[in-house]
Amino acid sequence: MKKSNQEKRDLLYIFLNEGEQYVLTHGIEFKEFARSLSDSLNHLLLIKHAYESGEFNRHTLLEYVPKEKLHRLMGDDVHGYGDFCWVDFEELEGVNALSGEEIAELLYMGHMKEQLKQPFNRHLRNRYGYFAHDDGWWNKVYYRTLTDFYRLLSDLVPEKLNEFKPEKGILGLKKRREYPPMDIDISLSLKPLMKEGILLSFKDAVQSRTKIEVPIWVIGDYMNMDDMFEEYEKLSKTKFDATLTFDKKTKQWQ
Predict the structure, then answer these.
(1) Distance, C-alpha 239 to centroid of its chain
(2) Minimal CA–CA distance to 211: which of 176, 241, 246?
(3) Which residue(s) pair with 218 in the sheet?
(4) What residues are paired with 247 via a beta bridge?
(5) Shortest CA distance to 98 belongs to which of 132, 114, 121, 80?
(6) What percentage of the chain carries pLDDT values higher than 90?
(7) Is 121 in the same domain as 194?
(8) Segment 2-50, tens digit of pLDDT
C-alpha cells in the first residue's frame, strides 16, 4: 500500500544507472526538478499527462507546454495525474520534423517508461526524458548530462532539510533556516553508493547544537517502491552506512 504524501517527501531514494543515463528516484517531485534545473529546461512535449492547459501540436497529436508557461504546470497537482511523461525540446520545428517512427518511439517510452532505442532525439535536442507514476512516488529520468542530476541533488537536500528539520529558536519555537546548497563535489562523492541504490531519511535526521546529520542507507536497486519501503522499515532499525552532515559553524556540507 502506498504511503502518505508526507512520507513520499521526507524520504529520498536514488538509484543511478550510469550506463543507460537514467536516475530512478522516490521523493523528488516535478516542481522540485523544474525549479532546480530551470536554466536548462526548455519547452515540454507531453506524452502522458492530465494537464488541461497544454497547447496542441497537429503533427504529433500531442500537447506541449512552452517554457514561458512552465510555472503554471509546476503549480498544478502533477502527482494526481497518475502517469506523467514528457521530453523537452528546443524548437517547434524539431517537433514537426519527427518521423512516424520517432513519434512511435516516444509513445513506447511513455507507455513502458524505458527507452526503445535511445531517449535523446536529434530533432528535439532534448536534455531529459521524464517518466513518472504518481509523480514523486516513482520517477525515472534520463539525463543527457548526468551533471544536471548532481546539480539537482545539491539543491534538493538543503530544501528538504529546510522543510523537515527547521531550527528551534527562543522558547523552543521552530524557525525556518535557509541551509546553503551542497557543493556539487559532495553530490558526486555519493556516486558509488547511488549506483547501488541509497535512501536518505530527512525525518531521521539528527540535530545538535553544532551540526545536523542526514542518515544514508545503501538499500539496493528497486523498481517497486512498496518493496523499497518494506526494506527501509527494516534498515531504519540498523546503523546507517553514511551521513550527509551540515556544520552549523562553518556553514559547510560534508
Answers:
(1) 26
(2) 246
(3) 198
(4) 211, 252
(5) 121
(6) 87
(7) no
(8) 554 545 579 999 999 999 999 999 999 999 999 999 999 999 999 999 9
Q: Are 55 and 166 a contacting pair, CB within 8 Å? A: no
Q: Count the neighbouring beta carbons within 10 Å of the beta carbon of residue 131.
A: 27
Instruction: Tell me, yes or no, whether 124 and 69 share the same domain.
Output: yes
Of 70, 105, 135, the one marking the end of a domain is: 135
Take residue 48 and report the three cell numbers written for it.
502522458
Quick: pLDDT tens for 151-186. Answer: 999 999 999 998 876 555 544 555 556 799 999 999
- 130 and 161 in a single domain? The answer is no
Q: Cα–Cα distances in Å, from 217 out to 48, 157, 192, 252? A: 33, 15, 13, 22
Residue after which a domain boundary falls, among 135, 163, 186? 135
User: What is the domain range of residue 244?
Assistant: 155-253
43 inside domain: yes
Average pLDDT, integer, range 87-106 = 98
* Coil, strand or helix at 208: coil
Residues 180, 112 share a domain: no
